[in-house]
Amino acid sequence: MSLSIALRLSRLLARHTHRNMLPLRGPAGVVSFTFDDVPASACEAGAAALERHGVRGTFYVAGGLTGQLEEGKPCHSEEQLRRLLDNGHEIGCHSYSHIRCDTLGTGRLTAELERNARFLAHLGVDLQGLDFAYPFGAYALGAKRICSRRFRSSRITGGGPHYDEVDLNAIQTHRLYAETTETPSYEELVGQTAARKGWLVLNTHDVEDPPSRFGYAPEKLALAVKAALDAGCKVLPVGAAIDYWESRAG
Question: Where is the NodB homology domain positioned along the sequence (predicted)?
């Protein structure tokens, strides 16, 4: 069996195991804006676009990228991450080395997560109820088993919004990228999320003008936040969104 076939099978099995299902019942839909790798521009222009509308986001940090360049763009500094925390944003885990988790053995993956936990604790992040995002969205059966025991939630990439219920160990997203061919459009998904009172989680990277192919322009991000609020959705970080849904699950 080739590695690619093995990984596809492992991911297929992961979809149906180690699940933590949460009902989505509430008076309003929820939109969550998340930032992977956390480029410096996400800390500055990204956070500002959300704060302009009085809302906050989730920033998934890989400690090994701190102070580094990624695809020629500066990543976050410790000072920027502390400022995000001080301003009420959520810091999540994105492994330490920004490495694919689907091909790592148990020992190496555990070491990666432990190392990033120490880094986040050094910043003052509360590790209780920590949220995680798989780098590159790369998850598989073994990784999901390990992460389901360590994190309150784990986020993948793609798949669109959730309606009726969500597996907190495999939260899907819609990519908010400058160059995207995903359908339906963001505006259509926001309307559907509001109408069906679901949960739409968005992911992007840098926030600058012009953005990279994995990023989004600051003004467009601000308009996206406004569109979610105008549609009647709540805009919440991932952890706060889970609190919202859990408080209504009983």
Answer: 29-236
